[in-house]
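quick one, two chains, predict together pls
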Amino acid sequence: MIASTLLVVILAQSATPDQWTMPAKDYSATRYSALAQINASNVRRLRATWSFSTGVLAGHEGQPLVVNQTMYVVTPYPNVLYAFDLTQEGYPLRWKYRPNVDAVAIGMACCDVVNRGAFFADGKIVYNLLDGHTVAIDAATGKQVWNTQVADIRQGESTPMAPLVVRDRVIVGTAGGEYGVRGWVKGLDLATGRILWTAYNAGPDAEVLARPETFKPFYDTGPSLGEKTWPPDGWKHGGAPVWGWLSYDPALDLFYYGTGNPAPYNAEQRPGDNKWATSVLARRPADGALVWAYQFTPADNWDYDSVQEMILADLKVKGRTRKVLVHFDKNGFAYTIDRATGEVLVAEPYVVVNWAKRVDLKTGRPEVDPAKLTGASRGSVKDICPTLEGGKNQQPAAYSPRTGLFYVPTNNMCMDYQTTPTTYIVGTPFIGLNAPYKPGPGGNLGALIAWNAAAGKQVWAIREKYPVWSGALATAGGLVFYGTLDGWFKAVDAKTGSALWKFKVGSGVVGNPITFTGPDGKQYLAVYAGIGGDWALLAGDVRSDDPADVRPPLSVMPDIARHTSLGGIVWLFAL
Amino acid sequence: MAVRVVAAAPLLALVVTSAQQPPPPSVRYEQHVFAGGNPPPAGTLENPLAGDKRAAADGEKLFSAFNCDGCHALGAVGGQGPSLADGRWRYGGADGAIFQSIYYGRPRGMPAFGGVLPPEAIWRLVTYLQTLTPATDPATVSW
């Protein structure tokens, strides 16, 4: 009896269910918590216990961390880091860290000045400033340990993503697919911040770190794919940025990340597959070596970035248990991929898709509908589903090993797509696009869906009036939590999707809920309120702080300002 | 370059006169400027192409060719950068203020185009922006 209790305690500590130390809870990016104090039978009694204004009005993406009775919150630009003392009444600050962030970054962030969160490792809080710096802050004192410039803001590079730390490596990437950057990931030394390796996503093999002895892609073979699938020099300003989520498999010693769109949007300026834009790449953390890569959308014509999370799970697919990664791409297909080899096992649409008929599992390539191809010479190509916002954007899904289901925030919109020839001018947008949106079939603009990734089938869906722009959280209490653009924070039954509880949090939710155990032994939920994260969705009608910028509401959401306006609030909930 | 000459003149006057008497105000605020914005420059720059339809059409082409529409959107109605078609100006809407915003850039991410575009092309951009008619902007929205 004593021995088994002890074992449980040790297991609990090693898995740290009480804390939340990295963006997606674990290296597998499941956003699943083993905490079960709050469950389907008592969640109706959930109530707000605390809130705090961050003082910043911008899209509050990302999520807090909870480590050693302290909650850490990174704000959007100017990227203030707050450390709340959870042992004191009212959770006063232990300290706050105010970095000096170059305001030029505001103009280099394509899609609001967001930050997607921090990572706790080795007593340090590691995160990115928007202007291309990675910092490590002593978690106890708030003192800066190191500050490394990783990206060049003057070239259109910016850093809204959350780092991944594996052993003594900090892995970061750059945004800037709308500025014609040349996307990369870098490996930094956790102790000093020194840059140890740089791996580009396009260009010559030597710079992509695709070495013949280690690079074994499942489908595409041959040398210099990152160079030959572009027009001469096209890869130098070809985008393929990294602004989403990273995950890691300790057994295979591989980390996974997706890349964004190729630049510019006019595909006629970059004939070829444009590898490795709109792809998943698997690399070794120690030296960045590329082990395999797979391109979801070759020759992207629709801005279908692939930066969404790669969730690692062991699933029984067609009778065999496989180590897979599951990915919900902007292009509308959900992929279940063997994460050791890059073989696509399942690829089915999880939203309405019409740019491709299916994905050929033998070749890994989508069967594209030629009528939906775009390019400057084709004018405005009508009714393409999904939009460039994706079947889902960066807002991360959750996976519950208890139900075996993935919980996915989705968009239901279609678009017309018109590109124009564009010239690369350093530090300015390299886009050339006009793409109005319209509601998808059914009229609802979004839904939270439950997905069976082994079968490639939707299990249930909760229709939402607006695009679902928050992440999801699944718990051992049989619950799924998510937020909506009109400012509701909701709990639903993980098995059935039935609505159990909701609370209006003061601004639209684009952040990702987390859960932890407080010093009082109670389970808490935390989530940010603060609409933002994409200019196209959040036209000026939801802001009141800038009288010099007045815009009409977006045609697909003419009444969003009736329900929300900008904000920046951290909320805590408990029974 | 014309901009620098205009700005330097009152400074020179200041240097000459300051020994004897308090300097006269070198800037006259002729229009409202939002807090946080820059004051208009000393002296006045006037758009030599004001009202010229052909210059405005050229300016519209430049607006696209130099990727202005990448931030401010087609028709300058606002994207990641503010709307330039709403009749409201963060840094002042006088000819010279718009010119300076383009020539020198602004601190929250507006790049400086002074090294990329000749002043004459910037005036064409200013002329284009000045032709944009603000949409009706009722003070009250009701549902």
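The first helix of chain B runs from residue 2 to 17.
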